[in-house]
C-alpha cells in the first residue's frame, strides 16, 4: 500500500514538472512572436510617401487623404471609383497637381474612357487650370498622364470672386464615359502636388483671418514652414528701392537745374 502511494506521488510530480516546462516553453514562444510582430509593425513599409508612409486615396471630400507637397499619394482602385486627396497651399504660391494612372495590361482602351483630375479649394469650389492636360482619353494599356496648374493663391479676395485662397485643396481623380463592361477593372494611380513661389508680384492688400482648413480633417496639415504671416513680401524691398532711386533722381535733377549762382546786376545800376 505504501509503495503504491509512493509511485502515484512520483507520477504526479513528474506530470507537474512536464506541464510546467511546456507552459514555460509556450510563454517564450508567444513572447518571441509578439516581439517579432511588433518590430514588423514598427518598421516602415514599402510606402511611396514620406517616412515610408503610404497615402492611399479616400473616397469623398470628408475622407480625402492628406498629403504634403512633394509627397506622392497612391491608390489601388477600380474604374468608376472617385479618388480623393488633400494638400495645403499657401498665399503667393502657384500649385501644380500631376497624376499618373496605370491601366491593366488587358485593357483595350476602345471604350473611350476619359480620365480627369479636378482640384477644389477649401470652400470646395472647383478651381480652373491655367494650363496642363487636365483630362485625357485612355489609349491601350499605357499610363495616362494628367496635370493641372492652378492660378496663384491669393492672401485675400472679394466674397463674390472665386480666387484660390490659402488653405486645404482637394484632388479628385476619376474616369468618365465608361461602359458597363469597363466598370470594376483594377487600376493603380499616383498623384503629387508641388508649388512655385511667385513672390511679391502676387501680393494683395489684405489677408484672411485664418487659412481655409476644415477642422474635421487635421491630416491635411500645413506647409512645412508654416502659413504666411500675411504682411511681409519681397514687394516691400522693391518699394523701398524705388523710393531711394526716386530720391536720388530728385537730388540729381535739382543739382543739374539750380544754375551757377545769383545773376549779376547790369553795370551802372
Q: Topology, pairings included?
A:
Blueprint: H1 2-42, E1 65-66, E2 72-78, E3 83-89, E4 93-102, E5 114-120, E6 135-137, E7 144-149, E8 167-176, E9 186-197, H2 235-257
Parallel strand pairs: 1-3
Antiparallel strand pairs: 2-9, 3-8, 4-7, 4-9, 5-6, 5-8
Protein name: Secreted protein
Organism: Streptomyces typhae
Biased composition (Basic and acidic residues): 47-56
Task: Give short descriptive properties of this protein.
alpha+beta; elongated; five-stranded mixed beta sheet; 2 helices; 269 residues; four-stranded antiparallel beta sheet; signal; Jelly Rolls; 9 strands; Secreted protein
What is this entry, summarized?
The protein has helices at 2-42, 235-257, and strands spanning 65-66, 72-78, 83-89, 93-102, 114-120, 135-137, 144-149, 167-176, 186-197. With 269 residues, the protein is an alpha+beta fold. Residues 60-76 have a biased composition (Polar residues).
Strand order of the largest sheet: 1-3-8-5-6
The computed structural class is: alpha+beta
CATH fold-level assignment of the domain at 65-130 and 152-195: Jelly Rolls
- Biggest sheet, in brief? 5 strands, mixed
Query: Helical region count?
Result: 2
Q: Which runs of at least 5 residues are low in confidence (pLDDT < 50)?
A: 28-49
H/E element string? HEEEEEEEEEH
Please state the CA-atom Rg, rounded to the nearest Å.
35 Å
DSSP strand (E) fraction?
A: 15-25%
The protein's oligomeric status is single chain
- CATH level-two architecture of the domain at 65-130 and 152-195: Sandwich
What is the CATH C-level name of the domain at 65-130 and 152-195? Mainly Beta
Give a count of the beta strands, DSSP E runs of length 2 or more.
9
State the share of residues found in helices, binned by percent. 10-25%
Summarize model confidence as the mean pLDDT. 74
